[in-house]
Amino acid sequence: MMDFARTKALFHLPEGVTYLDGNSLGPMPKTAAARVAQTVTAEWGEMLITGWNKAGWMAQPRALGDRIARLIGAAPGSVVVGDTLSIKVYQALAAALDLRPDRRRVLSDRGNFPTDLYMAEGLIAGLGGRHELQVVDPESVADNITDDLAVLMLTEVDYRTGRRHDMAALTRKAHAAGALVIWDLAHSAGAFEVDLAGCDVDFAVGCTYKYLNAGPGAPAFIHVAPRLAGRVRPALSGWLGHEAPFDFEMTYRPGDGIERMRVGTPPVIQMAALEAALDIWDGVDMAALRARSVALSERFIEGVEAACPDLRLASPHDAGQRGSQVSFRFGEGYAAMQALIAKGVIGDFRAPDIMRFGITPLYLDEADIDRAVATIAAVMDGRLWDDPAYRQRAAVT
Amino acid sequence: MMDFARTKALFHLPEGVTYLDGNSLGPMPKTAAARVAQTVTAEWGEMLITGWNKAGWMAQPRALGDRIARLIGAAPGSVVVGDTLSIKVYQALAAALDLRPDRRRVLSDRGNFPTDLYMAEGLIAGLGGRHELQVVDPESVADNITDDLAVLMLTEVDYRTGRRHDMAALTRKAHAAGALVIWDLAHSAGAFEVDLAGCDVDFAVGCTYKYLNAGPGAPAFIHVAPRLAGRVRPALSGWLGHEAPFDFEMTYRPGDGIERMRVGTPPVIQMAALEAALDIWDGVDMAALRARSVALSERFIEGVEAACPDLRLASPHDAGQRGSQVSFRFGEGYAAMQALIAKGVIGDFRAPDIMRFGITPLYLDEADIDRAVATIAAVMDGRLWDDPAYRQRAAVT
Predict the structure, then answer these.
(1) Residue B85 and residue B225: Cα distance in Å, rounded?
(2) pLDDT in tens, A380-390
(3) How far out from the chain centre does Cα B210 lie?
(4) Same domain (yes/no): B51, B157
(5) What share of chain A has pLDDT > 70, as a percent?
(6) What pLDDT score does B394 carry?
(7) What is the pLDDT of residues B260-294, one digit of tens each?
(8) Residues facing residue A356 across a β-bridge
(9) Given A83, A251, A395, which is nearest B121 (Cβ)?
(10) 8 Å CB contact between A182 and A153
(11) Predicted confidence (pLDDT) per residue in B99-143, tens digit
């Protein structure tokens, strides 16, 4: 039995705050501050350059990757940490297109996070316009998987609605059509069980600052199926993906397997925070996490739907089609969210009318859900979104 | 008058260590630990998602870029921080090639750091083999700048020998030939005065963990000349380089000027360490720094040459042709460097026979130089490199 009261106690949660935005930036594990301080003062400060060996900085991207691999159902040695999610999307798509030189079409959907589409645009423009990025509605993805498809590139969970694609079915259909697949796990890793190996996924990417709780600016990760890793040509062929980085050769030779997806110097201090976050994840039973995520989500939906008739559920009613977030549509959603935040319940807003709430069982319990529901009801009943102070837009929302 | 005893007191230098490897990884500014801890506990911990606005995380890449701009003679608003140096090289070269669609040749030299060449290889392969990467000897660069050149891509200071290119002359010649230039300032930024604006440089990139002392895994930076920034097409078109990232549009529109060279989420915790490092740099007179770097380097060269006839200077004798490092060639250089490190004088080794010493006036003084010289002399006189323990190679050197 997972003890979620125990995991909750491992996080620092500010006084008076009910935090339902862990799908955007997870809270701080209590050990993170000391772990980061150790890397700064005891490692950087005392070991200086020798920290690359002595403190194991150089090996961290693979070691942390292996710990993430368990959470996403990937084989050990098939995940490496580094860069940002945008960069990892670019690497994956460049590698996938290179493996399908005879095909020109990349398929994605409007539920994908914009940066994935932007990075694909930039890559395709660089490739000289021979390729096409097709962006369809989420419901039309399956129908557009046909024999001319090069790469299917999707984010598993829609960042606005929490709607979840059927990874197994879409991957199977793409493979049957001779296409490769790239899954973005930004809202999957740490949100529920993922089975990359079982679904035979080719490439996956994700970030670690959302459900994994590794802090602002935490590095991304990339997975390449072991059957492909030795064959991919890295577009971002940096020295730490070289077979022998410290031989300083004049030409690039790709490293062994997933090593070749490393690029430049890894973000040592950010990795220390990720390590602290993974210390918690190492003990988490993902099936139990998912069960509790569903139970808390259902409780939240029922509570809000009963108390707030003006809020319309934007997420699927069926838990099987949802990630670990719940979204509601409301025309004045931006101002309503500001009012909610002012009352200590933090969710976020996505244009044009989505109020998002992350349901993160590691540090949320029934009392938090009930408090959030009561506060949302108070905001709605009191029409607090009418207050001009809540209507003013901030730079980052 | 710069007071270098004052700047030295701002760094944590481990007991018993004379650190001449600041050209590889700078030491820790004493304020870095507290500054990083503040970002972790007071910002991430307490502000959670609101830190993007409240703590100014989103604005940091430009704010830090402006502070670096002063050190490299670039206009305010022309530098942005993020990613790794490898990624920034890729961005710069992709943008430069896009501005010269009629030309196919990229010129670099064997003194360039390998990752720059590797990233160019990867980019060129992705572009379909229409381009050519020509890598010549450093002395032959000027002769190969002819009217068919697309881009001249060089690291100003050779990472092995410290030999420094003539940025002004080579840039002038490249421009006269209709080519664009990219300067890698990895061993320039914080090492001496750089005048990007005065040299009319098109693109420059650099890292912040060497002379700038921002810590292991610190982010890189990129400069684009203001006359070009509004015209470049970003190959790595990530959402934070979008004109309106939080509008979550389906297609990419490049941001204003240098903003478009941002890609993904910035490394917030690493940026805190960089901020602490730049607090020191803000007070540094670069001309005074250079004068002291030359004086300390001359003292070091004279001392070693007098005491160690077996060491052959690999750096130029003429200070005007050197960066802020001094290298010596010695066949048993690897083992000799290990012996030296065991005695508390930290430099590093680059194959096949280069012993490197960074001369960093912010925290090195005459006593350090004299101690280093005496220790090198002791290692050489005692033939300590003969000890098998010093011959064993570590993974990272």
Answers:
(1) 18
(2) 999 999 999 99
(3) 6
(4) yes
(5) 99
(6) 62
(7) 999 999 999 999 999 999 999 999 999 999 999 99
(8) A327, A348
(9) A251
(10) yes
(11) 999 999 999 999 999 999 999 999 999 998 899 999 999 999 999
The string of pLDDT tens digits covering residues A173-196 is 999 999 999 999 999 999 999 999
Tell me if residue A158 is catalytic.
no
In a domain, A385, yes or no: yes
Q: Per the omega criterion (within 30 degrees of 0), is the bond before A352 cis?
A: yes
| Alpha carbon B81 to its chain's center | 13
Strands A203-207 and A220-224: antiparallel
Give the residue from A331, A19, A195 showing the smallest Cα distance to B48: A19
Question: Is A115 within 8 Å of B44 when comparing Cβ atoms?
Answer: no
> What number of CA atoms fall less than 13 Å from residue A116's CA on the CB side?
29
Task: Give dist(CA B111, CA B29) in Å, integer.
Answer: 30
Give the pLDDT confidence score for residue A397 in this predicted structure: 46
**Cα(B191)–Cα(B71) distance, rounded to whole angstroms?**
9
Give the domain CATH number at A133: 3.40.640.10
List the domain range (segments joined by +) for residue B381.
4-30+285-391
Stated as kind and residue range, the H or E segment containing A374 is helix A366-381
**B304 to chain A nearest CA, in Å?**
23
Strand partners, B136: B109
Residue A1 predicted with pLDDT over 80: no
Q: Check whether residue A251 and residue A375 sit in a common domain.
A: no
Query: Which pLDDT value is given to residue A394?
Result: 62
- Give catalytic status of residue A113 as yes or no: yes
Q: Are A275 and A268 in contact (CB under 8 A)?
A: no
Question: From the list B33, B233, B348, which residue is nearest A41 (CB)?
Answer: B33
Residue B163 lies in a domain: yes
The token duo for A336 is: 């309503």
- Does residue A149 sit within a domain? yes
Residues A253 and A161 in one domain: yes
B159 and B25: one domain? no
Pairing of strands A348-350, B11-12: unpaired
Are residues A291 and A237 part of one domain?
no
* pLDDT for the residue numbered B343: 97
Determine what percent of chain A falls in helix, strand and coil, rounding each to the nearest 5. 45, 15, 40
Which residues sit opposite A346 in a β-bridge? A19
End-to-end Cα spacing for chain B = 37
| Mean model confidence pLDDT for chain B | 96
The two structure tokens encoding residue B62: 């430009």
Domain boundary among A215, A248, A281: A281
A251, closest residue in chain B (CA to CA): B118
- Tell me if B221 sits within 8 A of B65, measured CB to CB: yes
DSSP one-letter string for B291-308: HHHHHHHHHHHHHHHHH-
**Domain limit, last residue, from A261, A281, A301:** A281
* Residue B207 predicted with pLDDT over 80: yes
Omega within 30 of 0 (cis) for the link into B361 = no
Q: Is B155 annotated as a binding residue?
A: yes
Q: How many domains does chain A have?
A: 2
Residue A349 lies in a domain: yes
Q: What is the mean pLDDT of residues A212-228?
A: 98
Distance of CA B384 to the CA centre of its chain: 32
